[in-house]
Amino acid sequence: MAAVAPAMLSAPASAQELSEKATRTFMEYSWTLTPERFTKPNGETILIDKSKRDEVQVPLEVAREVIRAGRLSAHAQACGLAKEQGDNHNSLMRRHLDSKRWSPQQIVYINQLHLTVVMLLTGRIKLVEKGEGEGTDKEVVVAEEAQKNNQTCSAEQKEKVKEMIAAYVKSGPALASSDKPATGSAAATGSTTVVPKTTAE
Known about the structure:
Layout: H1 4-10, H2 20-33, E1 37-39, E2 45-47, H3 53-56, H4 60-78, H5 82-99, H6 104-121, E3 125-130, E4 137-142, H7 155-170, E5 198-199
Antiparallel strand pairs: 1-2, 3-4, 4-5
Helix pairs in contact: 2-4, 2-6, 4-5, 4-6, 4-7, 5-6, 5-7
């Protein structure tokens, strides 16, 4: 995954279709970082039983959609498009909230999957191998400032990302101009969140 992330960010977000293996890898590390307790702005607390993974994770095709949106958010962040990044995330979450298909725990997981993709692709978290050989465990850790990906964004790329996000937002439910991240987390887009060192199970 460490090699996959920069490659995914350097290519157009619409140009790659994730393999099942890559999708499940993102899902795995997102699950590792999913909190056991999530408090919404209104004070409501959502508890997540980490022993019931199958009840919280979403189907593979849904995860692919979330990862595609996360990849687009990562492109927006690399191009300094904060508003578009927020709109992209809000549109993703609004679609899933409005669908009424998911439990509160699954909504938290969808948000965490998006966040994990953004942070991996922009270098804010990284995977560190523990030991050697096949089947080696990995840790998800916060990247030091100097280790963050050196991202560039040309004017042409910036316009392309803006167009893609505009099309994605237009195809979904209407967003209010003052819409906040649908999960209520100010850092949900991955631009400011700090993730504690966590060991993958």
